[in-house]
Design goal:
- The complex is a heterodimer of chains A (337) and B (237).
- With 337 residues, chain A is mainly α.
- Chain A contains 14 helices and no strands.
- Chain A is globular.
- Chain A starts with a helix and ends in a 5-residue tail after the last helix.
- By secondary structure, chain B is mainly alpha-helical.
- Chain B contains eight helices and two strands.
- Chain B has a two-stranded antiparallel ribbon.
- In chain B, a hairpin with a 2-residue loop joins strand 1 and strand 2.
- The chains are: A mainly alpha (337), B mainly alpha (237).
- At the A-B interface, helix 9, helix 12 and helix 14 of A face helix 2, helix 3, helix 6, helix 7 and helix 8 of B.
Chain lengths: 337, 237
């Protein structure tokens, strides 16, 4: 990568806060060309990225799974959600072997319905990623807003929000997600449950996870609140809400991004766990967890591929995102440079 | 309800006990022999253990030990004996055998997490001046490592272990589902599936009481381990 040529246009040394924001933007849109690209390749983050082979592999794996699941309808040989394309005779075909009735060959074999495992994994990771990313985004929004209000306003708002957060932090997040899921499902009429399952799942995972963001944002806001630029903004009469959003928020985003990356791995695992427990995605639109749940039924009869490949995909996805999060935490931590 | 709780406790008690002790031992070992082959292997394995979801650990264990090797049963509790209302599988062979896999599953995640924590805390403590001084004084390595270093490692470890004991309850839901263990977690999952609000509410109350108790015990343990906390009553304060 031509770091020098790209970076030479950026000869003036940017201020530390401006630089931080540029890095963060660059990190988010890494896979697309952007105007911030030149600055991004010049940054410390990119340097530490190129110096860590494990991170590069992890990023590549995440990218492959992302692209593969985004283009699932074009990449997958079969539409596993459409019963018309399925052939029951194809059921239980082992990987890379010809089916004994139809002679068709599937890379990763088929399940009991004759669905191609490779296709179901593509569609499954699509749902898993969608739920994971949406849940993290929702949790981020809830957490950031509540954290900003708690940290900036202080007083009773702070007390109420942080007490709720403390109570919730005592319980393991998977328990909270299960509980929210159970209650919301109780409210929704039975015939709609399968259609809205994905949204209930997103909301319940987000509600189980927002505390992390709220606490981090609150802590950082408490520090930023007393800095001169915030005081200056207050003196010239900027309203509290614009101060929070335009002035404080950009300066507390760094740690939030790190938590969000690790939170994504946790959300994906949480989704898989809920689906595996049979309370997440229905079997008609399976996510990775549902696929593993289905595969477990065939473990004893020797059809190992129905279980193994979705499980491996989940493992690789979670591990890679985790590694990326670890690296990002270290890269954004000035103490470790 | 009580019956399922008792059944769940049979699973949780040995699991949490063995987890705490073995993670402490492994953590100390990896900290002391930081560069050794065994320690490096354990650390790499623990990284996988941290990112592996609990249910995958359970399924993997079932696959290896129940399906392929057929050494251990894959589900249920085996034969149980009633001890005045508390049924236990400890006293029968099949009960003990069907306990092994769920207990390992339940403990493995906690094990890796606490082990990594013990290791990093221990490494931190081993760098401090008073440890160097104790070495310089010529104290035997055992006294330095266990008498001085380990004690100061324990404080954060107790906090996390306490919290993790709480989360064992949550992970028990998953473990009990994987192994079809008739515990309180499995009942909770069934309650969610059938939208059985009273059972869910009772379960939550129980969990809440459990959490409060665990946190209380953790707070009391601080005083036992850390003499600095007992200074509050010193004269002049």
């Amino acid at each position: 990568m031509s770091d020098e040529t790209l970076g030479s246009g950026q000869s003036s040394v940017p201020q530390s806060s401006a630089r931080q924001t540029a890095n963060d933007t660059g990190e988010v849109i890494r896979s697309e060309p952007a105007t911030a690209l030149a600055r991004f390749f010049d940054s410390d983050i990119w340097y530490s990225f190129t110096r860590s082979p494990v991170t590069i592999v992890a990023a590549l794996l995440v990218l492959i799974i992302l692209v593969a699941s985004a283009f699932a309808p074009w990449l997958s040989p079969q539409d596993p959600f459409n019963p018309a394309t399925l052939n029951l005779l194809d059921g239980f075909t082992p990987p890379m072997e010809a089916n004994q009735f139809t002679g068709s060959v599937y890379w990763l074999g088929t399940d009991d319905q004759g669905r191609d495992i490779f296709s179901t994994i593509l569609y499954g990771s699509r749902i898993s990623l969608f739920v994971g990313v949406s849940a993290v985004l929702l949790a981020m929004i809830i957490g950031i807003v509540l954290g900003l209000v708690a940290g900036y306003r202080g007083g009773w708002a702070d007390t109420i929000i942080m007490r709720i957060a403390d109570v919730q932090l005592t319980f393991p997040s998977i328990l909270i997600a299960l509980l929210v899921f159970g209650i919301v499902r109780g409210i929704v009429p039975p015939d709609m449950r399968n259609d809205v399952a994905i949204w209930i799942l997103i909301v319940s995972i987000a509600l189980s996870d927002w505390v992390q963001y709220a606490r981090t944002v609150r802590g950082a806001t408490l520090v930023e609140r007393n800095k001169e630029y915030v005081q200056a903004a207050r003196v010239i009469g900027v309203k509290p809400f614009p101060i929070m959003m335009k002035h404080v928020l950009p300066n507390v985003m760094g740690p939030v991004l790190v938590i969000a990356t690790i939170g994504l791995a946790l959300a994906i695992i949480a989704e898989a766990t809920l689906s595996f427990l049979g309370v997440g995605m229905p079997k008609t639109t399976p996510s990775l967890g549902t696929l593993i749940n289905t595969g477990q039924d065939f473990l004893f009869s020797g059809e190992w591929w129905i279980l193994l490949f979705p499980a491996l995909t989940l493992l690789i996805l979670a591990l890679s995102v985790n590694l990326l999060g670890d690296w990002l935490r270290d890269a954004l931590n000035p103490k470790l440079r | 309800m009580l019956k399922t709780c008792a059944s769940a406790s049979v699973l949780m008690i040995p699991s949490s006990c063995s987890t705490s002790t073995s993670s402490l031992a492994l953590g100390v070992y990896t900290a002391l022999r930081r560069k050794g082959f065994v320690a490096t292997t354990i650390m790499t394995a623990s990284l996988i253990g941290v990112s592996l979801p609990t249910f995958l650990i359970g399924i993997t264990l079932i696959w290896i030990f129940a399906v392929e090797l057929q050494w251990l049963p894959s589900n249920g509790r085996g034969e149980v004996i009633d001890l005045g209302g508390w049924t236990t599988g400890f006293l029968t062979d099949s009960g003990r055998a069907s306990l092994i896999l769920p207990a390992i599953t339940l403990g493995l995640y906690q094990l890796t997490l606490i082990m990594r924590l013990v290791r990093s805390e221990m490494l931190e403590v081993l760098r401090t001046d008073y440890i160097k001084f104790a070495r310089a004084r010529g104290l035997p390595a055992r006294a330095v490592n266990f008498g001085h270093a380990l004690k100061n490692t324990l404080i954060p470890v107790i906090t996390i272990t306490g919290l993790q004991l709480g989360s064992i309850v949550a992970f028990a839901i998953i473990t009990e589902t994987v192994f079809q263990w008739p515990g309180v977690g499995l009942m909770f999952i069934n309650a969610i599936n059938f939208v059985d609000i009273p059972v869910m509410a009772t379960y939550l109350m129980l969990i809440a009481v459990f959490f409060v108790l665990v946190n209380l015990i953790v707070d009391l343990l601080y005083f036992a381990v850390d003499p600095r906390l007992r200074v509050e009553r010193a004269p002049g304060k």
